[in-house]
């Protein structure tokens, strides 16, 4: 079984911001990726989530969408480092770059660049019934945008804020190293049977 | 793949306190249980962690140690509800009740009833090299006790505090439902090669 | 000097939600109420903030605006209990009920009932140059609404999320009692000199 | 009225760690310093708390105990910058350096250098009945040490963990800048009447 245990420093990352290990693990828990499935990672950044998703997907495939050239390079390097031949990088900006996606079981959404509703429309068009969208929000504005964007969509939405304070040793004591809080939302698409 | 996705309300729990879903998922991530392994759950409570561990362990086995008769009954009920024939309940108090444990790859420690050093000694006696102990602390006192207890032990220790605020809908808005913060420690036992 | 030290249980509160002591204290710190000033408390609830503001304002005055009849009664009871003859209750809904306000040095805004921009317009109309608005947000939606509402206003805005976990004794240990996180924003109105 | 509103960057600080503004304000709220009183600040660091205490104490006096030469210099510089002629620096290490303290109404305790019980004994010897000790803890170990140290002392103890995430603007959005969590304890010394 794969266990989402990759440490932050194992990823090649340059100066691109990266989801921290504890958050990445929780996103993967909520994503509940089954082997063989198709996963899209929108705004893949360094590809750290794509790698974890690819390891979980096994014979399945991960489509990593990223517009930043530095990020695109990092995703490819990390995919190679972790032996993830099942990651396909799609260069471009969501929602346009999502057009070529196949039907996915899971869609991960990091940044949305202000295009959340359009990205959710595109996600819905490529998400299987019962599939799930996992969104992370790291700004004061995005959290409210996400709950409002799902108000009238046929999804079961749950969300929470999570904050981690790592302990680090200093002399005889352990101090706290706070990480930024992140909001994690999981939206499960209703199946036809439920409507 | 198993994905630690069991919701709190799916467990039979009576009035016994239960580790919440997000914490349970994070403990499982840190435990990194491989199929086929032996896992001990010290202070198993309702058995919610034992069940998640048993599902992850597959052909392996989970030893759930619990002294509280109500808890013992709940563990058995939950094991049955989730079809976990690989959970063996050991009635008794740690560290004494740990005597009959086989060599384990993972030992989960919830409450210690004030016997932390002795429980860690017993855990060490039954933990394979490279194995890991995952401890949760929910009191102001226990956090410091744990870091101090590991000061001179041949383990690589990391720990963090994690707090989750769930969002719940109220009318047109979403309010926060705060969960108690929990400290999660992971101690990996050094292999002979490292010493 | 007044020190914002009133405990939660000293207020008469019925079933009306009340800002908790630690948050109330921080709001008062950010409000920086000087003796003699005029303060408005929009959505005064139980009047707990109005009472603290009235004690800080001394010879000044606090205008407590509240629409809920139960709340109005509680504000009056609490004003009497704490000997705050300088609290004037204005029954009604913001922004309309703000029409009769004098020029204020400080305006506290709790709930806005979805009328944030109009309430900020009314607040601005009654706020002295250099005066400050202190807003609390307790929903996932309001935080973003507030930062956006101030984007083009001539105010210096700062804000933070604050979460308190109280410790409570249980047997030999202290457990955490988490309070809901609150966002506190302070907006200082620019004086003519700055523009 | 003094309002604990000094921003972090107004203090001269060098490389000495400093209690952040929101925490400093909350410590002052809990200290409830009355004008004219005597206050001791044990482990005064940069003197930021001493300055706030001195402004609140008015005609009273603040005794800032610090062993670090860099800190001693900073306390003197900050006292001068904020016009606090009522701060007296005591060079030395607690508890020894506390010998010369007069009877105090409030004693602030930051770091204890591992001598907590002895420092609490010294504090008790110099604290007026009804006086209060406010302690801050920033390590995983100290929190438990403090609650245990007060278990048998004739003080009413309350404590909480507080975490602040400041919002900072980045482009069109506001990100979170997390501050380290701090535990704040307030211990009020029982008067003879209560025993």
How is this structure best described in words?
The structure is a homotetramer of 195-residue chains. Chain A is α/β, with parallel strands linked by helices. Chain A has one domain (8-194): 3-Layer(aba) Sandwich (Rossmann fold). Chain A is built from five helices and eight strands; from the N terminus they run αβαβαββαβαβββ. The mean pLDDT of chain A is 93. The interface between A and B is medium-sized, with 31 and 31 residues.
Key descriptive features of the protein:
homotetramer; 195 residues; alpha/beta; Rossmann fold; eight-stranded mixed β-sheet; 5 helices; 8 strands; 27% helix
Helicity of chain A, as a percent range = 25-40%
Q: If you average the pLDDT of chain A, what whole number results?
A: 93
Low-confidence segments of chain A: none
Of all protein chain pairs, which has the greatest interface, and how many residues does each chain bring to it?
Answer: A-B, 31 and 31 residues
Please describe the biggest sheet of chain A, giving its number of strands, its sense, and whether it closes into a barrel. 8 strands, mixed
The geometry of chain A reads as: globular
Question: In whole angstroms, how far apart are the ends of chain A?
Answer: 35 Å
Number of domains of chain A: 1
Please name the fourth-level CATH homologous superfamily of chain A: Vaccinia Virus protein VP39
CATH architecture of chain A: 3-Layer(aba) Sandwich
The CATH topology of chain A is Rossmann fold
What proportion of the residues of chain A form beta strands (DSSP E)?
25-35%
Order of helices and strands of chain A: HEHEHEEHEHEEE
Give the radius of gyration of chain A. Answer: 17 Å
CATH class of chain A: Alpha Beta
Q: Which oligomeric state applies? A: homotetramer
Count of helical stretches of chain A: 5
Structural class category of chain A: alpha/beta
**Strand arrangement, largest sheet of chain A?**
3-2-1-4-5-8-6-7
